[in-house]
Amino acid sequence: MSDVRTKGDQSTTRAMNRRLILNLLRREGAKSRAEIAAATGLSPAAVTFVVSDLIEEGLLIEGQSVAGAQGRRPIPVAIDYAGGVALGFKLMAGSVECVVTDLETTPLASLRLPLPAHDPDTIAEALAAAAPKLVALANRPAARLAGIGIAMPGVIDNQRAVCVRSNRYGWDNVPLGDLVASRIGVPVWLEDDTNAYAIAQQLFGLGRHYKTMGVLAIGVGVACSLVLDGKLYRGAHGAAGKFGHFPHMEGGRPCECGKRGCLMSYFSEPAMLQTWHERSGRPETDGRAEMVAAIAAGDKAAHSVMREAGETLGRHLAGLMNVIDPEVIVVGGEAVAYGDALFGPLRATLERFAFRQAPPVLLDWEDDSWARGAAALVTQKLFDFETTAGNA
């Protein structure tokens, strides 16, 4: 029994050391083995052992030794982001955004494909068919396909890559990770779309230098993922972060969850457009571009919708932030297009209701962040050794 515990302890220590070194190099870039030891507190022998393993696995590469005044400097090592590619699929109501990235989630190519139906086998076939097209578009023949990330709205068991429930697709307990992995032959990770977006922000985005943050998404739905002490918080059943299902108006507008009066029924981007149409008499064909133009032109109805949305979301967000005390709030989604008209009132209300100082609210203007979030599920595997996935 003692020997078993010793081997288990050694395995756990190695995994922790790997994660420590990889995360240091992710945050700060190339470092020599001596610099890694000094920064992490690990012994030089432990660093040498782990770095050798990571080089052999193709995760790290060695740079060139440079001559200096004190002789040749130690050889730096860095993460080999170009040595692999990751595929990311963001499932939406009628289409799927597809992206191939390097392991730093830098996009190499992208596609948007229609989804002819929402049954699991049709979607799995569509993703499997898209995979070789994306790999070819990446034009990196020497890079290995490290895996596939799928992001979708719903309650997700990320340990088993199973969609426990998706109101939008009408799914219950669908093993989408395994369905796709069995067709392609590489590991597949599955995650709630806002959680995947939060992972991307944590690894390489606006949240890169923060350990505790809220990641608010305002698009087709409303959600707020939480990163606590550097780890995504999923809750007991994978349903954490469903901010859009806070009760707003009892007996109000129907929500896709089957209840009425949820926050997202009034303040998702489509819901805000609906309210604008109702108040202004504008045609239902007027969408985001027309709303943005109306805001710029001083349209009173558009500004009232934005002010009400910002104040209401800000008040609810303040309550949540008073619980978790984040360093920052990162915001993404289609509603970012409304800028200060929406986020000015949100920030002011957040400041008014915050227990102490309100955290800064950072807007993510990148168009490809959501598909990159799906691809980031693959990269996260390099840094989070507790994650499991659908297996080929």
UniProtKB/TrEMBL annotation:
The keyword ATP-binding does not apply. Gene3D superfamilies: 3.30.420.40, Winged helix-like DNA-binding domain superfamily/Winged helix DNA-binding domain. Keywords: Plasmid. Belongs to the ROK (NagC/XylR) family. This is ROK family transcriptional regulator.
